[in-house]
Specification:
single chain; 223 residues; alpha/beta; Rossmann fold; Arc Repressor Mutant, subunit A; 2 domains; 6-stranded parallel beta sheet; 10 helices
Length: 223
C-alpha cells in the first residue's frame, strides 16, 4: 500500500515546517505540497490531488472555509481535515457544511493529529474531543452522501443579514432601521446568532464572517 499523500495549507511557515517534519517521520505518510493561503491551497489540490488536505481556517486569500468548498469541487477524492486554533462550534459546523471530513484543534497532541489524518483517509469523520460534548453528532454527515452545503445554510437569510450589519459596526437601532424591523426583533436575531454560533463579541462575529466567506474582505457582503 502506498503512502497517504498530504497537502498542508497554513499561512504560518514555521508551523508548516513543523507539520512537514512530523508527518514525514511516519512511514505511511508523505507531504506532497504546501500552500500559504486559500487560493493556493485550491490550486495545489487541483494539481496534486492529495489524499488528505490539512487546512487551516484563518488564511489570506479565499477564506479557509470557502477554500474547503473549492477543494472538494476541484479534487472530489481529496478529504479535507481542518487544523485550527478555533475551539468554537460555529467553525466546526461551517467546516462540516463546506465538506470537511474532520476538525482538529491545534493544541491537540501530535499523535492525535496523525491518527486523525489516517482516520479521515479511511473515510471516517473526525471530531476534536474538546468539541464533542458541544456539538450534536448528527451534524456529522458521511462524505459524498450529498453535495457540500454552504456555510450560509447554518443561518437564515435574515440572520445572515443581521450578522453582516453587526460585522460592519451597525448598532441595533441602525440595523432595525436598515431592515425595517423593531429593535427588539434585531435583539432576538442577535441572540439567535449567539446561540447558533457560540460567539459573543463583535470581534468574534467579524472574524467568523470573514473566515466563513459570509462577509467580503473590504467590509461588504461577499459576492
Amino acid at each position: 500500500m502506498g503512502r497517504i499523500r498530504i497537502l498542508i495549507a497554513d499561512d504560518h511557515a514555521v508551523l508548516r515546517t513543523g507539520l512537514r517534519m512530523l508527518i514525514s517521520s511516519q512511514r505511511d505518510l508523505e507531504v506532497v505540497g504546501e500552500a500559504s493561503d486559500g487560493d493556493e491551497a485550491v490550486r495545489k489540490a487541483a494539481t496534486l490531488r492529495p489524499d488528505v488536505a490539512l487546512v487551516d481556517i484563518t488564511m489570506p486569500g479565499a477564506s479557509g472555509i470557502k477554500a474547503i468548498e473549492r477543494i472538494r469541487q476541484a479534487a472530489p477524492a481529496t478529504r479535507v481535515l481542518v487544523l485550527t486554533m478555533h475551539d468554537v462550534p460555529a467553525y466546526l459546523r461551517a467546516s462540516l457544511a463546506a465538506g470537511a471530513s474532520g476538525y482538529v484543534v491545534k493544541r491537540s497532541a501530535d499523535s492525535d493529529l496523525l491518527a486523525a489524518i489516517r482516520d479521515v483517509h479511511r473515510g471516517r469523520a473526525v471530531l476534536d474531543p474538546s468539541l464533542a460534548a458541544r456539538v450534536a453528532h448528527g451534524t456529522l454527515r458521511r462524505r459524498g452522501a450529498v453535495g457540500p452545503a454552504t456555510p450560509t445554510a447554518l443561518l437564515s437569510q435574515r440572520e445572515r443579514e443581521v450578522l453582516e450589519l453587526v460585522a460592519q459596526g451597525f448598532t441595533n437601532q441602525q440595523i432595525a432601521d436598515h431592515l425595517g424591523l423593531s429593535v427588539k426583533t434585531v435583539e432576538t436575531y442577535r441572540a439567535r446568532l449567539v446561540e447558533k454560533l457560540g460567539l459573543q463579541s463583535r470581534a468574534e462575529l467579524v472574524r467568523y464572517a470573514l473566515d466563513s466567506g459570509l462577509f467580503g474582505p473590504e467590509g461588504g457582503p461577499a459576492s
